[in-house]
Amino acid sequence: MSPGPPSEAAAAVVLTADDWGRMIALLCARDGDIAGAEDALADAVESALRAWPASGVPRNPRGWVYRAALNARRDVWRSAAARTSVPLDARAHDAAADPDPALAFSELPDARLQLLAACADPAVNPASRPLLMLSTVMGLPARRIAEGMILPAATVSARLTRAKKRIRASGRSMRIPDRSELPERLLAIHEGIYGVFTVEWAHAESDLRHGLIAEAVFLAELVAELCPDDGESHGLAALIDLSSARFAARRSGGDLVPLHAQDSRRWDSARVEVGEEHLREVLRCGHIGRFGLEAVIQALHMQGVRTGRTDWDALLRQHDHLLRIAPSLGAQVSRAAVLQQARGPQAALHALDELPRSAGAYQPAWVVRAHALRALGHSFDADSALERAISLTTVASERRHLERERRRPRGAQPGPIQAEP
């Protein structure tokens, strides 16, 4: 290696969200010390920034960073403090030190599920669990989490800081539970898996086989396999499978293609079949919850695209049921979009007017309002609503789509809106 400029070292040491989450899962898989793993990884990145400008960037930057963090964790495990508080199992701790970093990374899917289960510990504040999962386990930045949860980024950062301080102050590690404890933690695990899927879905541009969307698909399938008689686990897997099956059709030349305009021939038919099989398993289990209902809604929308005949009344019934068992702002806005097709744009506007104040910062609510206003011929108000939606849009492809909608001739009717995951 030859010395390189600081900028080269800084570029090489950047870890993707997937890299960060995978390394954290490896580093704390043995003792559940999430805070310790984060500190070790952050220190390793700082060490790289100091060392690489002089020594040169190594051929495997990720492996270098992981190895440095792992060495720091091994020092802790072997320290006098650790020996007096936790029995040292050299075989267990050294098992995390795989000499081939690529091999170590390939072992992570199960380890990451274990870490999600650790964050779902009933002793952890319920409001903090999804944040810890998305930030620490999945490696998502606070800004991205805030967008997905419709919260200010400062609020997410503050909650994460408080949660980690409480864990450190308690002196307890995030213990990795065994399989028998999985059922009591399923609800939180479901939320974590779906959370990372929805947050990443809007931003994913590359091959679905890579990155955190692929990880969410894998984890949803794994949970359904581990809990074959849990209807919601199958419901989550169905929802993610049916949504991800449309990945290739959701953009054209980098531009967003709404569900109603997608070419169903570009959908992944094998993934659709898997999702539909999970839906049948939901019925077999005899219980349908939030994720099962959202999967049914997704399936009805997709059937409408394939056949050209969407059953809006059936969709409205499913949304009403969903709001009874799992009310949320997203479900209310999605129902308003369906209501426009089933009962007319005035009914949709009435439903939007009844939303809570927080809807003022929720981009989909303004999109649905703009469509309803345009359908009523209120072009000026529709343009204003679209302007507000564009101002709240952070994804470039969505922004371009809305700007095209704004340029449509006045009086032109937009297509129906279907809910994305």
Automatic annotation (TrEMBL):
Pfam families documented for this protein: DUF6596
Record-annotated DUF6596 domain positions: 185-281
Source organism, top-level taxon: Bacteria
Region (Disordered) location: 398-421
Cross-referenced InterPro entries: DUF6596, RNA_pol_sigma_r2, RNA_pol_sigma_r3/r4-like
PANTHER family xref list: BLL6612 PROTEIN, BLL6612 PROTEIN-RELATED
UniProt protein name: RNA polymerase
